[in-house]
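Input sequence (127 aa), recorded before submission:
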Amino acid sequence: MRVRTFICTLFLTVIVSLARGQAPFNGGSGDGYDMAEVMGTTLSTTTPTQSVWKVYPTTLQAGELLHVEGGTKNGLASLIDPSGKVVWETETSSGPTTLSLPEVATGNYILLIKEDNQSFTQKIQVR
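Predicted structure, token format:
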């Protein structure tokens, strides 16, 4: 009976904390902020593989080659302007890839690479 009461009390404490916009804390003394860890819900039991991408150079002229290394599968590379418009897209392959940047206006862009359910972004400056 004591265990059941403890579980019910703990459950109600968590619900009340979440309803107030607070996360329950585990650890720490005093005001609850020192050495505290936020307890959360496990959303997945699988760990996604992390692709490591390397993009260079990040400052280049339109028409220059952009070198992309990394990734384990074929993906899609998109060049996005500051307004969010996709100005260029191309497919990427696993391993090192060389992309010929199209003639685009001078400015800052975001290179977005999508591979399966993962994505990578890199700021690109076109001179």
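Checked by second reader. DSSP finds one helix and ten strands in the chain.
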